[in-house]
């Protein structure tokens, strides 16, 4: 029960990787704030986990995020950690034809949404005397991928933002790291890429012979939030089955 008595907030906690993280944290004793724009999914996940509570919030709305985290602290009595997991993928289109509305949407959710979340979380973590933050990046924070300019740009930026937060707030007891998953079958990715043959090809590209699962990503995330990782900050951690090793 590594998180007994601690409150951890998870954005995008209503499905996929976020849901797996919520379940893992609750199973290890945490009180979990499940934040998601999809209130029904957030409520479902919170209802299936011990000591969890759902909060509907749009991460592109800085004021709403600030209010949500004030409410989390009010209801749970503090904030000890956060996972900034909310994100979207987008179309596969070469950059010259990349839809501007999609660029704006991806930057708003994947990058501004993480920054707004951090801005809302940090004062509470400082007041608590420290804590741990994990930002969800991607293997696309390390590599390029044709046709995904918005996604690749935001995931590279998240790693840089993570390092900056670690340097700014380390002296105040706050650690900040990024987790960088490979392809993961989630409701979101399956909706964007619903082709079993393509998923089989993606599995084969990994040294482990398979894409990661949400539980694989949750395991790394929860470790980085724990006291076992007390000397780990400002770094990005691959959960990629060896796909970037070549």
How is this structure best described in words?
With 246 residues, the chain is α/β, with parallel strands linked by helices. It has a single domain (7-186, 214-238), classed as Rossmann fold, CATH 3.40.50.720. It has eight helices and seven strands, in the order E-H-E-H-E-H-E-H-E-H-E-H-H-H-E. It has helices at 16-27, 39-47, 62-76, 100-128, 149-169, 187-192, 196-204, 214-225, and strands spanning 7-11, 31-36, 52-56, 81-84, 131-136, 174-181, 236-239. Strands 3-2-1-4-5-6-7 form a seven-stranded parallel sheet, sandwiched between helices. Strand 2, helix 2 (39-47) and strand 3 form a beta-alpha-beta unit. Helix 1 (16-27) crosses helix 8 (214-225). The longest helix is centred in the middle third of the chain and has 29 residues, at 100-128. The radius of gyration is 17 Å and the shape is globular. The model has no long low-confidence stretch (mean pLDDT 97).
